[in-house]
Amino acid sequence: MANQVEHQQPAPKKPRLVFTDLQRRTLQAIFKETKRPSKEMQVTIARQLGLEPTTVGNFFMNARRRSMDKWKDEDPKNPGVDEGQLSPSLGISPRQATDVL
């Protein structure tokens, strides 16, 4: 009996975090201005938005990846962006984003 291995159930997965509209717009506005915020800035952003610093860090890491993927996907023959490809305005200026912080 001593040789039996106990199988523990893995901890249940945490549900996926969905950013609120304000959190998402603020993070996107900051990303437009600063692709790699310092750890201190990430902690400040996290505190102001009620998020974990690791969540904020992951947002910027994923945003950089998405922005790099988008850049790779662009047609090299047509570097311009059609109006149909533009994302809707965030409705928040970078200045407003820093005011939140």
TrEMBL record:
One Pfam entry for this protein is Homeodomain
A Gene Ontology cellular component where this protein is annotated is: nucleus
What are the start and end residues of every segment in region (Disordered)? 67-101
Which CDD domains does the UniProt entry name for this protein? homeodomain
Spans of biased composition, class Basic and acidic residues?
67-77
Specify the DNA-binding region ranges: 12-71
Coiled-coil region(s) at which residues?
none
| Domain Homeobox, first and last residues per copy | 10-70
InterPro entries the UniProt entry points to: CUT_Homeobox, HD, Homeodomain-like_sf
Q: Where is the signal peptide?
A: none
Record's subcellular location: Nucleus
One annotated GO molecular function: RNA polymerase II cis-regulatory region sequence-specific DNA binding
What UniProt keywords are attached to this protein's entry? Answer: DNA-binding, Homeobox, Nucleus
User: Keyword DNA-binding on this protein?
Assistant: yes
List the protein's name: Homeobox domain-containing protein
Which species does this protein come from?
Microctonus hyperodae (Parasitoid wasp)
